[in-house]
Amino acid sequence: MQLLAINPGWIRKISYCLLFISVGCLLSVNQATALPSPSYVQEELSTNQFMGSGKFRWFGLAIYDAALWAKNPASLQQGFALRLTYARNLDGEKIADSSAEEIERLGFGTPTQRQEWQKRMQSLFPNVKAGDRITGINLAGQATRFYFNGRELGTIADPAFTQAFFAIWLDPRTRAPNLRAALLGQTVNGAASTP
């Protein structure tokens, strides 16, 4: 019986390919150029500066690209805008439900508050298709105003909601720490974390 000869060079190439694929499935991070803020962000945050952007993937599937602009990058408390550009079709109610689940996981709000926030998000968030954009604008921590493809959807004037909602991406306990670092223009392992 003859044994199959295995070429060590091929094993190394296959290992590198598998490593590349597995890392790419978690989160795509690379260098980005500064994105100009949309006109409605300029109207809400008279002065603003691009901080960073990143791509969120779930099990290798691109879900959305995120971008962050801040009124004052040294202090996010003065206000900022977070825009998600979706890569696939998603149901608005499911977006709201996923957001509510993350807020609960992070420990924000009481059960009653979370239930009310979920209802408000369900009433505001539309179904999205690839290329659609939802932007949340943090109005100095006092309220969150939402836009869909540049059209105002509505405002949730609740400071507790504002803190909880943006924590999904910006809290250190986020499920996507590399995306958080990219949005904040930070570095990961000595490399810039912007997509």
Overview of the molecule:
With 195 residues, the chain is α+β, with helices and mostly antiparallel strands. It has a single domain (26-192), classed as Chalcone isomerase. It is 37% helix and 26% strand. It is built from six helices and nine strands. β6 (144-148) and β7 form a beta hairpin. α3 packs across α5 (159-170). It is globular. The termini are far apart. It comes from Parvibium lacunae. This is Chalcone isomerase domain-containing protein. Pfam families: Chalcone_3. Residues 58-185 form the Chalcone isomerase domain.
Task: Please mark out the parts with pLDDT under 50 across 5 or more consecutive residues, or reply none.
Answer: 10-31, 189-195
Q: Total domains, how many?
A: 1
Strand order of the largest sheet: 1-2-3-4-5-6-7
Share of helix among residues?
25-40%
For the sheet with most strands, the description reads: 7 strands, antiparallel
Describe the global form. Answer: globular
Mean pLDDT, nearest integer? Answer: 84
Gap between N and C termini: 52 Å
CATH topology: Chalcone isomerase
The number of distinct β-strands equals: 9
Instruction: Give the ordered list of helices and strands.
Output: HEHEEEHHEEEHHEE
